[in-house]
Amino acid sequence: MQVVFVSNYFNHHQLSFCDALYELLEGSFCFLQTQPMEEERVKMGWQAEERPYVRYVQPDGTTTGGLEWQNLLLTADVVIFGGCDDESYIRERLAAGKPIFRYNERLYKEGQWKAISPRGLLQKYKDHTRYRKAPVYFLCAGAYVPCDLGI
User: Fold this and answer.
1) What is the pLDDT of residue 6?
2) 91: which residues sit within 8 A by CB, 6+ positions away?
3) Is 141 or 7 the better-scoring residue by pLDDT?
4) Coil, strand or helix: which one is 15?
5) How far apart are CA 140 and CA 22, in angstroms?
6) Rounded to whole angstroms, how far apart are CA atoms 32 and 30?
7) Residue 2's CB: how many other CB atoms inside 10 A?
8) Residue 45 Cα distances to 28, 107, 151, angstroms
9) Could you tell me which residues come within 8 angstroms of residue 80 by beta carbon, excluding any fewer than 6 positions away?
10) Cα-flanking dihedrals φ and ψ of residue 142, to 5°?
11) Do residues 74 and 96 touch, judged by C-beta distance below 8 A?
């Protein structure tokens, strides 16, 4: 089984989980980092130690290690996607009806008023509701996420 975890960057919050997946899947695991970590987060100690399963998206569409991320995301058995606003990474996979686990922190960090705002409702529909009959699942990365989704 091949599992790919896509996020904006690899950090200490994901480290233990990713190490466990890499070991459990006997190396058939890849973490795809979609952007460089901001310098202020590096200074705060967010940057995790290098791992053999971490790949970085390059501007030419390849990743470090020469893998093409588009093919990797389409052929993997499971993709975990979160921490990245760019839906283009998973658009083709969603269209193909392949399994995706979205993970999210709080949807309404700036306040629950977004639960009733037209923009907030539209974004919630785009990211979650329209895939309710597809193999798209949700991993809550925080205690408030179930409440945010239940509104």
Assistant:
1) 94
2) none
3) 7
4) helix
5) 21
6) 6
7) 14
8) 28, 25, 35
9) 3, 4, 5, 6, 100, 101, 102, 103, 139
10) 160, 155
11) yes
Is 74 buried (19+), middle (13-18) or exposed (0-12) by CB count in 10 A? middle
Strand-pair partners of 100: 79, 136
pLDDT of residue 66: 67
Tell me which amino acid residue 25 is: L
Give the separation between CA 137 and CA 9, rounded to whole angstroms: 21
Question: Mean pLDDT in the chain?
Answer: 83
Q: How far apart are CA 147 and CA 76, in angstroms?
A: 31
Q: What angle do CA 125, 80, 77 make, to 5 degrees?
A: 115
What would the pLDDT profile of 26-38 be if each residue is shown by its tens digit?
A: 999 999 998 888 8
DSSP 3-state of 103: strand
* Angle, CA 131 vertex, CA 127 and CA 132 arms, to 5°: 115
> Strands 3-7, 78-81: parallel, antiparallel or unpaired by DSSP?
parallel
Q: If you search the block for the tokens 């993997």, which residue do you land on?
A: 76
